[in-house]
Amino acid sequence: NQRDIIRRKQDLQQCAAYHKSVVESVISLAVTCWGSSVRARYVRRLDTA
Questions:
Q1: Which of 6, 9, 27, 48 sees the fewest Cβ atoms within 10 Å?
Q2: DSSP string across 4-49
Q3: What's the CA gap between 25 and 35, in Å, rounded?
Q4: What is the pLDDT along the chain (49 residues), one digit of tens a residue?
Q5: d(CA 12, CA 9)
Q6: What is the pLDDT of residue 9?
Q7: Angle at 36 between CA 31 and CA 38, to 5 degrees
Q8: Rounded CA gap, 16 and 9, in Å?
Q9: What DSSP element (H or E) covers 3?
Q10: Could you state, in order of their start, the residue ranges of all structural domains in the chain?
């Protein structure tokens, strides 16, 4: 049935969009954590210098 195929395609697109947004938020969170740890290490190095 053509309608079922179209509906399945839309479901897949929604699922892909959801996964993409989740992955992007996880990546941004990881970048933020990594950036703050690097900054802390850099500040510590400046303090000891």
A1: 48
A2: HHHHHHHHHHHHHHHHHHHHHHHHHHHHHHHHHHHHHHHHHHHHH-
A3: 15
A4: 899 999 999 999 999 999 999 999 999 999 999 999 999 998 888 887 6
A5: 5
A6: 95
A7: 95
A8: 10
A9: helix 2-48
A10: 1-49
Say which DSSP state 1 is in.
-
Residue type, 5: I
Q: Which amino acid is at 25?
A: S
Q: At 3, which amino acid appears? A: R
